[in-house]
Amino acid sequence: MSKKIVVLNGSPRKNGNTSALVREFTRGAREAGHTATEFFLDKMDIHGCKGCFGGHSSQECPCVQKDDMRKIYPAVRECDVIVLATPLYYWNMSGQIRTAIDRLFALEEGDGNLLRGHGRACALLMAAEGHGFEDVLLYYEHLMEHLKWKDLGHVLAGGGGVEGKPELEQAYGLGRSI
Which sequence spans correspond to the domains of the chain? Predict the structure, then answer.
């Protein structure tokens, strides 16, 4: 059965290591018959969450802020799988992806929870110059638990560039396995 996949790419580099992992993942997913829509967050106008609790999940744009999240909300509502793709910055996800994740909260507010559960699944793709993914993996596990999403796995590419490394093949395999 074909799945709808949303990729939130939190890298500031369109041709960087994280984006290479995304390319291989989406290639595998598409070859397996799925659709994949990537949002390159660094080139989008997305503001930080105000914590106002003013969202209404059933509205076309559930957040009170009107920015490029309006492009992401409908895709997330309709998707089966969300892929979080990010470089490792200070033992966590990039600010670009953290901001988008925070803003997804609007889908949990108001008229019904359209984010948590709903049979969704998630995967994590990360690249880093060094290593030290333990803290971000703990955050990811807590996020999956809170959202009641199935964890499909992760690819963690540490130690610099990914060209020619097995993590690219792992990302492709993860995409094919969806």
Answer: 4-177
- Please give the Cα distance from 107 to 120 (Å, whole number): 14
Q: Of 93, 40, 86, 82, give the one whose Cα is nearest residue 178.
A: 82
**Pick from 81, 92, 4, 87: which is nearest to 41 by CA?**
87
Fold of 4-177: Rossmann fold (3.40.50)
- Other Cβ atoms closer than 10 A to 60: 9
pLDDT digit string, tens, across residues 113-138: 888 888 999 999 999 988 789 999 99
Residue-averaged pLDDT of the chain: 94
Q: What is the pLDDT of residues 59-79, one digit of tens each?
A: 888 999 999 999 999 999 999
d(CA 99, CA 87): 14
17-31 and 166-177 are packed helices; what angle lies between their axes, rounded to 10 degrees?
40
Q: Is the pTM of this model over 0.85?
A: yes
